[in-house]
Design a protein that fits this description.
By secondary structure, the chain is an alpha/beta fold. It has 3 helices and 8 strands, in the order βαβαββββαββ. Strands 3-4-2-5-6-1-7-8 form an 8-stranded mixed sheet, sandwiched between helices. Pfam families: DNA_pol3_chi.
């Protein structure tokens, strides 16, 4: 069963918090897949990760770039995991039908969007009922706080 963390974004958009989370993923020797709702969102993240300054280097790729198996971080609008990632980052309310390839799942959702919050609650219930280990993190003025 996957360990699933819900990340309630209250101060920053996903692109602002992803570099730190992805940097920690790479530092742990893991590979990541970032699943987005649209191709446009993939392009936005691609551009943003190249511009990230902390950490300075986040090697990643997309379907447009190719070489999926070589990419430590894979950005996609689909269900593909060509890099063998064991960490999945879900954005924009994207759902993952099959969590079996993943040790950890990070579900990032916009706390200022009521539809996004309601959708996250539904995913929480479904994954809790599926027997997954869940945690909830709320963005604070400085860092994250784990909530019950």
């Amino acid at each position: 069963m996957a360990q699933i963390g819900f990340y309630h974004l209250t101060r920053s958009p996903a692109l602002a918090v992803l570099p730190a989370l992805l940097g920690r993923t790479l530092a742990a020797g893991k590979r990541a897949v970032v699943r987005c709702a649209t191709v446009e969102r993939v392009q936005e993240l691609d551009d943003g990760l190249w511009r990230a300054t902390d950490p300075l280097w986040l090697p990643h790729g997309t379907q447009a770039m190719g070489h999926g198996p070589w990419q430590p971080i894979w950005l996609t609008d689909g269900q593909d995991v060509p890099n063998g990632a064991t960490f999945a980052f879900l954005l924009d309310g994207v759902e993952a039908a099959d969590l079996s390839p993943f040790e950890r799942v990070f579900d990032l959702f916009d706390g200022h969007d009521e539809a996004a919050v309601a959708s996250a609650r539904k995913r929480w219930v479904a994954w809790r009922d599926g027997g997954h280990d869940l945690s909830y993190w709320q963005q604070q003025p400085r860092g994250w706080a784990r909530r019950k």
